[in-house]
Structures are given as structure tokens and as C-alpha cells.
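Show me a record, fold above all:
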Amino acid sequence: MDEFLHKALYVEETDEDIDFESAPSTGQEYLRRVIVESRKCEAVVVADMKGKKLKAQTVRYTTDSGCLPAPETFLPSKEWQQFQVSQFSCLRSRMAKHLARQKKQGIQIKPNINLPAGDKEKEWSVLCYGNPEDEEPSGTPPMLPIILSLNQFMVETLLEYNVQWLEETSFTQQRGQWLYALLAKLEKPLKPEMCSLIRTLARLCSTFRAKLTSTDDPLLAQLNLFICLVGRYFDQSDLADAMK
């Protein structure tokens, strides 16, 4: 094989025996050892693949999207889903036009309250939903000036906070209001991490929906709404409810 290999480094030839029991004392000696050892290797090596040593395939493919199925009576109609997507799209369009006009006129939108910094998760939780130590926690609703004043980084940060809080607690109408407002400001196309986040949101909503006991539950419409928006508006169709 040596005649087919180009030498990258010059190595002085020698007839001296190499003591492999001791450490090489020079770089030349180390390279000579490498050459001698490589000559002892077979030119072609074939692995002995014995069936008993092969492990069973562990990769499994599934088409399960992770959304829990809902009772037939809980599922929204095709018309309802189309209407909600249309309304949501119109809201986002109006918000975008309003922001463009304000920017053109040099007007900076400022909320009438001081907002916490992005890394102040606990302060945002108190602002949105009140202090849990209070007897009756009451937070701040997602008023338009607050939502319009948020840049995209803050929108994504607050969405991440809200989904995380939702994993740790229960769904409420107030949480639904904040989630809807933040989704309305979330820009498309989605970043991969935002895509993953809203998919988690849809799955959580399907879990909460599956625990409801009545079609009269006031949370049903909101839970259906988020599954619809994630699936139909944000193009995660594998998570959407069927069009019936």
C-alpha cells in the first residue's frame, strides 16, 4: 500500500529496532512507530456482522400528532373554524396597518403602565395574572397599547412564558386572552422554536379540552380557538381538528 500513499512529512528511515514499551522521545521516533504499526494493519478490513450481535430496530414511525381526540360534540364546525381564522387574520392586518401609520408619523406607542424587562419572568406573571399570594389575584388584561408596544423579541419571550405557565397550572379565560393577543402580534413565517412552542400550546389545549365534561363549559370555545389557529392559521394542519 505504501506506493499509493503520498508522504505528508519526511521521516528518516532507520534499521534500529523500535521499543514499543517505552514512550517516544522525539517526533521522528513517534512517526516511525506510526508507520510500522500501520504496515501491520490489513489493507481491507471486513466487520464480522453476526446476527446475534445485531440489536432490534428501535426507531418507530408514528402519525400521532400528540393532540388528544375530543368527543364529537366538542369539535367545532368547518364554518366556525373558517370564521375564526378570518377574524384573526383581519385583526392582525389592522394591527399591522396601525403600527405602520404610527411609524410613518414618528409616533412611538407607549403603554400607560411600566412593563418589566424581558428576563423578569416573575414580574410578568404578576402583571398578567396577579400575585398568587393574594386572596383574589387580579392581573392586567392585554390592552392594545401594551401589545402594540412589544417588539418581536418580547412577544416571543412572553409566549414562551405563557406556554410554560400553562404547563404548570390550569387554563383560564384570562390566560386565553393573553395568549390570543400575543399570537396576534407573532410574525410569520415562524421561527423553528416558535413553531415548536405553538404546537405545544395546541397539544396542551387538546389535553385541557379532553378533561371537560360539558359542551356548556365556557372554556371550550377558547380551547377550540387555539387548536384552530395553530392548525389552520399557522399551518400546523396535523394538529387541527377535522373540518366537518
Observations:
- Residues 78-104 form the longest helix (27 residues).
- The helical segments are 27-39, 78-104, 121-129, 144-149, 152-168, 173-185, 192-210, 220-233.
